[in-house]
Amino acid sequence: MSDKYDVIVIGAGPGGYVAAIKAAQLGLKAACVESWVAEDGKSTVLGGTCLNIGCIPSKALLEISHKFEEASHDYEKQGIIAKDLKIDLEKMMERKSGIVSQLTGGIGGLFKANGVTSIQGHGKLLAGRKVEVTDKDGKTKIYEAENVILASGSKPIQIPPAPFDGEYIVDSEGALSFTEVPKRLGVIGAGVIGLELGSVWARLGSEVTVLEAQDTFLPAVDQQIAKDALKQFQKQGLNIILGGRMTGAEVKRKLINVSYEDSKGKQEAKFDKLIVAVGRRPYTDGLLSEDSGVKLDERGFIFVDDTCKTEAPGVWAVGDVVRGPMLAHKASEEGVMVAERIAGHKPQVNYDCIPNVIYTAPEIAWVGKTEEEVKAAGEEYNVGAFPFAANGRAMAANSASGMVKIIADAKTDRILGFHVVGPQASEIVAQGVIAMEFGASAEDLALTCFAHPTLSESVHEAALAVAGGAIHIANRRKKK
Questions:
Q1: Partners of 256 in beta bridges
Q2: Catalytic one among 66, 345, 452, 472?
Q3: Is the pLDDT of residue 344 over 90?
Q4: pTM
Q5: For residues 262 and 239, what is the distance between their CA atoms, to the nearest angstrom?
């Protein structure tokens, strides 16, 4: 006899657990299958990569290391004398783990409160919306559902020149659990994960070298913003080598000998630890039976339409396992959309208004199109930018690097892109997301009253600058 549900979700990450909770809130009988088991071998670990070994623990370490960096180097100029500072790495890791435990435990509480059934085991989709679950002891059970949501997430990409060994050559998870600060740290990949993890250990005392195969720094980011950020990272001591293509890594006498090629030819470097952060791939291992009816695209992602439907009736997929940016908040929005569609509603995710954030210092955040994308599309546009160096609150906080940049359609003035590099960019970008979600023009923001003194005044001034009307900087002269 099999158990029957309205919705079974495979995967309890930000896409899966949110979908399960929303489905239950909408009156559907929902279950969530998760294979991750805690160290005690009994309890199921909820929250996926993001909460356990991704977004949350990395932000905890970024916050702690940033405070240490500030106290060590920036307090004195503000009149605060703090001598002989040191980092207690063990306590720092305990703090990180405590935050993770609190949040993942909270999901279990939310499942109970909303009536979601948590099923421990590896979920596999069979034909006819059946889900086979294999528990930690190898026992299998078949469940039936009217709808199945696949939310199995992603895993780090391994590269042949530097396979993970868990000790010297590690992925992002290993980089969050070092027991001592590496003297020399190598990072392969100058993307979001590489820059964030490199920043953590650089602040704590590591000599950090970041190897990036591409010749352009952060090619997906507006290049005016990216160039500003690169200067700041280099000032902080991050050695970022662009066009550095790794060719090999060998561990000898507790050191990693890395060989790579750049514009100057063959190069070598030695590191105590090496983080490989070249991206992630969809995790579909053992997820689908051959007759499930679900298809993968050429890159291994589950093929879905704009509403996250697969080609198999009643089967949906969300998050990192489908097209689009691998972002926790994107996964959650898709999870909510799918649950509501199953319940008969017709919501749609606006993929043009999903914010992106890099939690370095300065933070980098953006939504919408870059200036390069707008230009390549042949669209006429206006740009307004305002530096935090002219913002009183940023100066008072000793965080006056970076800028806010707004790109607007030349004819309609509708905001096409909103970009920030600087203090609290991750929070400020939400103003751009809201504005774009409501189809706002740059003038709408320019006519809005912002509190003084705040960092957000830079948004106001950038919006004014789109039409050449900024108050607190000299405006560009318009071509006649």
A1: 251, 271
A2: 452
A3: yes
A4: 0.96
A5: 14
